[in-house]
Write a structure and sequence with these properties.
By secondary structure, the chain is of the alpha/beta class. The chain contains 8 helices and 10 strands. It has one domain: NagB/RpiA/CoA transferase-like (Rossmann fold), CATH 3.40.50. The strands form 2 sheets. Strands 1-10-7-4-2-3 form a 6-stranded parallel β-sheet, sandwiched between helices. It starts with a helix and ends in a 6-residue tail after the last strand. Bound molecules: iron/sulfur cluster. Iron/sulfur cluster (SF4) binds next to helix 7 and helix 8. The site of iron/sulfur cluster has 14 residues, from helix 7 and helix 8.
Length: 215
């Protein structure tokens, strides 16, 4: 028995239970998954076969196996990763607005149930706000922060890792710290908060994972 692991599992379970209540009060649908495998099983239950599905760029979707599921042929997947040119990618990103389901992770989630996103291009936050009929968010409780201000601080701290992952030429890749840059490759132009889903109950379907995914 590893006491440290047990305590973290207990803590994450409590955080997830707390968030489930807050998110449901905001008219979102919520599931709790203990692992990536469970998250994938829930995703399969939510997603009707043959539905039109698009995604936003996300380590979580890759690491949970969600991307592989979408490529299985059971869905009409608008595969942004199949683009061979920037123009093709742009076209696929625009098509995503007509999807039945848009899958993404969030960059942070506040203790009172606000979903926080940070985007460079804007296509992901745009599709989260409007267009696709439903938005499925797979987000692990290691991304939970106290409030929106703490989300800003967290994202400022971790964004250099995303720049590094994407092999960009931004100042943060040199230093590991955000310089609030003016680089044309800046990945931090759009900071967006989903305060509530009250106007469209059930549009957001949120899978909280106790296993850590993403940054
Ligand atoms: S604002 Fe620029 S320097 Fe800061 S994390 Fe984003 S890309 Fe890096």
């Amino acid at each position: 028995m590893n006491l440290r692991n047990d305590l973290w599992i207990w803590k994450k379970g409590k955080v997830a239970e707390h968030l489930e209540k807050r998110l449901k009060a905001k008219k979102h649908e919520v599931w709790i998954a203990r692992s990536g495998e469970e998250a994938l099983e829930i995703l399969e239950e939510i997603l009707p076969e043959d539905s039109v599905v698009a995604v936003g760029g996300s380590l979580t979707l890759a690491d949970t196996g969600a991307l592989d599921l979408l490529k299985s042929g059971r869905y009409n997947f608008i595969d942004r990763y199949s683009a061979r040119t920037a123009e093709e990618q742009e076209e696929l990103q625009r098509k995503a607005f007509w999807a039945d389901y848009f899958l993404t992770s969030a960059n942070a989630i506040t203790e009172d149930g606000k979903l926080v996103f940070l985007d460079g291009n804007g296509n992901r936050v745009a599709a989260v706000v409007y267009g696709p009929k439903y938005v499925i968010v797979i987000v692990s409780v290691n991304k939970v922060v106290r409030d929106v201000q703490e989300a800003r601080e967290r994202l400022r701290y971790i964004s250099p890792m995303n720049s590094k992952r994407l092999n960009l030429s931004t100042p943060c890749v040199e230093t590991g710290f955000c310089a609030d840059c003016s680089s044309p490759q800046r990945i931090c132009d759009y900071f967006m908060v989903v305060e509530s889903g009250a106007r469209h109950p059930g549009r957001f379907k949120i899978i909280l994972t106790l296993e850590d995914f993403g940054l």
